[in-house]
């Protein structure tokens, strides 16, 4: 039996997304890339997102193929195991271009299930 229900894992992802967006609100990339405290906090939350995504049951993942479950887990692996390869430009683009949509998609999953 999993240690947490998958719905709680999705709530964890949504909370991490909200915290990333709150921490980076009003920032430009130049501000982000020199603020080590914000970078580390954001990377930690991306790690939570990836770990939680990896623990969503396959049957749920297959019902929502538009959600990048695998990519979230892969980002976690890079952040924690290949940390020297993290490219802040990619992290920044994910924050600005992908996280708001991902939050909406995950909210829809919770409402539908």
Briefly, what is this?
The chain has 113 residues and is mainly alpha-helical.
Report on this structure.
With 113 residues, the chain is mostly helical. It has one domain (6-112). The protein is built from 6 helices and no strands. The chain has helices at residues 6-24, 29-34, 36-54, 58-63, 69-81, 88-112. The protein is globular. The two termini are 19 Å apart. The mean pLDDT is 96.
Q: What are the segments in which pLDDT stays under 50 over at least 5 consecutive residues?
A: none
**Any idea how many domains?**
1
Question: What composes the largest sheet?
Answer: none
Q: Give the helices and strands as they follow along the chain.
A: HHHHHH
Instruction: State the helical fraction.
Output: over 70%
The class by helix and strand makeup works out as: mainly alpha
The proportion of residues in beta strands is under 5%
In total, how many beta strands? 0
Which of globular, elongated, flat, extended, rod-shaped describes the shape?
globular
Output the number of helix runs: 6
Terminus-to-terminus distance: 19 Å
Radius of gyration: 14 Å
Task: Give the overall pLDDT as a whole number.
Answer: 96
